[in-house]
Amino acid sequence: MDDRDAIVTTVSDYWEGWFDGDGDRMARAVHPGLAKTGVVIDAPGPRITGTMTAEDMIRWTRAGEGVAEKPADAGFELTINDIYHEIATATVRSGIYREYLHLAKTPDGWRIVSALYTHVREDPAPTGT
C-alpha cells in the first residue's frame, strides 16, 4: 500500500470508527500523543475547546458518542494536501465537521497526531478559504 492509500485508510478508520462506535478503528488511526482541538461558535463568538487526547477519543468512540451524533449522511471528502516523507496534512469536509489533520508515519503506519475542527455552519465561509 502506498502512502496516499495508507493515509486514506487511517482517516477512514478515524472518521468511520467515530460514527460507528468502533474503538479499535479509532485506536488504529490516532497517535498516542494526539492533540485534538475544536473551535466552537456560540453567542460571544469563537472559542477554543480543551485539547482532546487519543485516550479521550478512543473512550468516547467506544461509549458511542459519535453514534449518537451520526448524521443521515456521514460521508466525507478527503483532500490530502501534502505528503513530505514521514509527515502529511489532510482536510476532511463533511456535512457536520471541517477538520484539518496532521499525520505522521510511524513504525505502526500513518497516525493522526493533531486535529483542528469546527462544526459546519450554513453561513458561507469567508472568501479565500
Automatic annotation (TrEMBL):
It comes from the Bacteria. InterPro entries: FrzH/put_lumazine-bd, NTF2-like_dom_sf. Pfam families: Lumazine_bd_2. Gene3D superfamilies: 3.10.450.50. SUPFAM superfamilies: NTF2-like. This is SnoaL-like domain-containing protein. It comes from Phytohabitans aurantiacus.
